[in-house]
User: Fold these one by one.
Assistant:
Number 1:
Amino acid sequence: MTTSRDAVDAGAAALAALKHAYAPYSHFRVGAALRATDGTVVAGCNVENAAFPAGTCAERGALAAAVATGHRDFDLIVVATDASEPTPPCGMCRQALAEFAPSLHVVGITTAGKRADWALSELLPQPFTPASLTNT
């Protein structure tokens, strides 16, 4: 299990990314920082679009940036919001994260200092995985 101390750098990166979020429609800004198992932290923020399905969540933005730089193994994601309570990733992000790290440690933090911890496996107990594609 990742400790609070282990999540400090990722938390700072998630809060920094939150400041760059583009959320003119929902006004729900999100920053996320994904930590690769080699310690590299890659951040992302949500980017909304007037054509609502075209937007990108912070978690998937961080995942895409990490994969684009060659990272495929992750142990932690920190999701930062301005919300009153910590927010876990949405269902689509949970599924995308499970592709690479089904045992990922998920930390939700707020700008007010609240924190919550989850295991991705508890947030998405039965993910669709590459094994789901095998013919039995």
Number 2:
Amino acid sequence: MTFLYFLAFFVMAAGMLILFQVSPLQLISDFSQIFSRRKVKMKKQIELSINPKKLRGIRLIIKDARDVLRITNRSDRFNTLCMLSLILFVIGALLAGSMSNLIIMPVLAVGFALLPFLYVLFSASKFKKDLNGELETALSIITTAYMRSENFILAVQENLDYLNSPVKEMFEKFLTQACMINADIPQLLEEMKDGIDNSVFQEWCEAMILCQNDRNLKSTLTPIVGKLSDMRIVAGELDYLMYEPMKEIITMAVLLVANIPLIRSQSVDWYHTLMYSVPGQITLTISALVLFLSLTAVIRNTRPIEYKR
């Protein structure tokens, strides 16, 4: 009966939004603007400007996911991601209602709502590995061409067709600016340095800037590009170890969920005690909370190997 109440509530809410032609994302945005309009004292504003408050928890996960979408040129998918998160939030609440467990409802609702953002963060690891491979190829061939011609613009032009996204778009932008807008190559390299969040690429750009003033320093470019090769070799050797925690958490999640029907098949009384008694519902809530927290921690810590300057 509780499940039917919740289902009727969400259907009624969806019907009202459709009737008044209100977008759920716009509704959430309006509410967030109302709460963000509260006045902040000048002293508090100064303190926040000196020591910015670090985001934590759910807000940090959403911010990181949004940054990943921006870096991968998929910012237009953020609204779709929010809509999917809202749908999963409702599914989590309905699932808890079907279990007649109000204690676990906030855990399932919030946990299901975070799944799309966690998936984006997990996919960022693969994107960074692919990006490191593209950077290794691009910087290697451009460096080789530059050491031969000592002309950076010519080196980029010769090898532009061999580059792939997103590195190609960045060098295309550099060529457009260098040939039509601004011929100051060191300044353009300085601007391009911040286009990709990769310490080796940034170091390569800084070395290339120095080479524009002293071409004898071009010998420093090859060892920098070699760092990307080292990263690829080490990542290949440690790939299994890096993703082993993810395999373990997925295995534990499957075992945890599979235990519920297993208990029912062994003893109906134990099953009713687990599902419908207060101690059993609290146990399920704690298990679900630990599962979502562990999944979040594993995804946030599963990152490809990078050089740190």
Number 3:
Amino acid sequence: MKAYSTQMRLRIDWSEVDSFGHVNNLAILRYAQTARLNYMEETGMMRFHAETGIGPVLASTTCQFKKQVFYPGNVIVHSFVDHIKNTSFHMRHTVMNESLESVAEMHDVLVYFDYKRNIKQPIPEPFREIMMQQGPGIK
């Protein structure tokens, strides 16, 4: 398995189960959202955004659902940055069940954005360095 930048264990909540008896696909997407936000908090991106008004915005997300997940239980979300451009970076997430089977794989594109001026911004160098150090085989 790849060396992931972040790994989170999340409890499946009863409210995430749908009428088919499995965890709803939107809950799976929220697991990735939680991991993405955790990554941004750990790297200081959220603090930087609060101070400057500049930070990442989710431009695109895709998900391939592979297996059902059921309540009760936990999921493990592995996340890492695998591609960095001038103003954007790509994150990959794998959601696994307690048997360590992949249940979903996501791909996000995040763009660095000046929320006050409503324009893209180059990724600040300190965050580029953090991503380069943590990401396995970044392009």
Number 4:
Amino acid sequence: MAEQPSITDEQILSLLDKEASYEQGFKALMSAYQERLYWHVRRMVDSHEDANDVIQNVFIKVFRNIKKFKGDSKLYTWLYRIATNESITFLKKRNKKATNSLDDELSTVAHQLTADTYFDPDAAQMHLKLAIAILPEKQKAVFTLRYYEEMPYIEMAKVLDTTVGALKASYHHALKKVEAYLKNVEHNSL
């Protein structure tokens, strides 16, 4: 998991609250969270270019809506919620346009990963990434937040606006699908 920001959320919000320091506050927010959010989005959308597009949309939404942040949750929870929703929206749009079969989709994801200069996979990582790629958007979000970000279910519930029980069930189903995919890969490679 990425390092914690050197500036606190309270300091960032204080800067954003004043017109004179708003720009400094937004720069501090981006500095503190851009990398963490990028990798969260990247794990969901697969390619560097797509992740950059989604992150750009995330920060546009944050810029437009930061004044509406009430502090009911942690700032990072609010940011992850926006990033997750933007990623899911992107995936839905991409899947709507795609008429490919599952094999074609896996082939495309595999090609994107191997062609991506920012991703240096070993075989196990590649198969895990492919297994995650075939998950439905919501399960992909839950799996990514839990497996990679190690986010507690209570925080995930705030990010995804659902119950802890639903998240545990979704993670369980996602995990079973990933395990089945990996067992199938292992079986076919013997």
